[in-house]
Design a protein that fits this description.
Elements: H1 2-5, H2 8-48, E1 53-54, H3 55-58, E2 73-80, E3 86-93, E4 96-107, E5 113-121, E6 135-142, E7 163-164, H4 169-175, E8 180-192, H5 219-259
Parallel strand pairs: 1-2, 3-7, 5-8
Antiparallel strand pairs: 2-4, 2-6, 3-4, 4-5, 6-8
Helix pairs in contact: 2-5
Length: 260
């Protein structure tokens, strides 16, 4: 059968088959990525649809991070502590490298501190100070990050803010005074006082809350991916079947010549 498969016409069809297999495989992978992206978008939309609750209703100081806490939107009124602000290096937003600007917010209702990612900046030399006075922050909660991402020592910004490798709450609890929430928040909005107008970001870009945990798939696009791979398998089977039939036909002709 190998000799049959090496016939010029079957080799030509094999070249076409390989092109088809590569194309169909890539189309299937593309549809699978679309299915994943749509799954993430659906989870993000569900998270954004969750109601905003007072931080006291979602989390207590030093309490374990809630099982369903990732993406929970909370509201907290307090004051930023500029002397505790720091940057987190090696972060990306919109394909650009830069830093997260993280500021401790002392929540007035509990006197505990919540680490808030106020925004993203590409320059460590032009980091704005946090707003002074009472501020109400609407934020999306996230669990603390692992220290395995590393740390970067030294103050490298114009304001003397240190640069770190992650939002490691185990480190912050030993550096910031008072109680600490076992979470950090991505700022969605900052308002002056309790009912004031929204504050400008002053050169920072808001960081979209990441989608944490299982994101699922868009089953429609996943089915399209499977469909392309089935087409690829069917094309390979048809080539094999045609080569096998040609081989069997050749054997029959040889037997007929031998019988004669």
């Amino acid at each position: 059968m190998l000799r049959t498969a090496l016939k010029p016409r079957w080799l030509g069809l094999l070249a076409v088959l390989l092109l088809v297999l590569v194309s169909f495989t890539m189309l299937g992978l593309w549809q699978l990525n679309v299915a994943r992206d749509k799954g993430r978008a659906e989870v993000a939309a569900q998270s954004a649809a969750r109601p905003v609750v007072p931080i006291a209703d979602a989390l207590a100081p030093h309490a374990p991070f809630p099982a369903e806490g990732a993406g929970q939107r909370v509201e907290a009124t307090g004051r930023y502590a500029a002397d505790g602000q720091f940057l987190v290096a090696r972060r990306r937003l919109g394909g650009r490298d830069g830093y997260w600007v993280v500021t401790p917010l002392t929540v007035e209702s509990t006197d505990a501190t919540l680490a808030v990612v106020r925004g993203f900046t590409q320059s460590a030399a032009t980091v704005p100070d946090p707003p002074g006075g009472p501020v109400t922050v609407t934020a999306s909660l996230a669990p603390g990050e692992s220290p395995s991402q590393g740390t970067t020592g030294g103050a490298t910004t114009a304001g003397g803010y240190p640069v770190r490798g992650s939002v490691d709450l185990a480190v912050l609890v030993n550096e910031w005074q008072g109680d600490l929430y076992n979470a950090f928040g991505f700022a969605l909005e900052e308002r002056a006082g309790a009912v004031g107008e929204a504050l400008p970001t002053e050169g920072l870009e808001r960081v979209p809350p990441p989608v944490i945990g299982e994101t699922g798939l868009s089953w429609r696009n996943a089915a399209y991916a499977l469909q392309w791979w089935i087409f690829a398998a069917f094309a390979a089977y048809m080539w094999f079947r045609m080569v096998r039939d040609d081989h069997q036909l050749g054997l029959e002709r040889e037997r007929e010549r031998t019988d004669v």
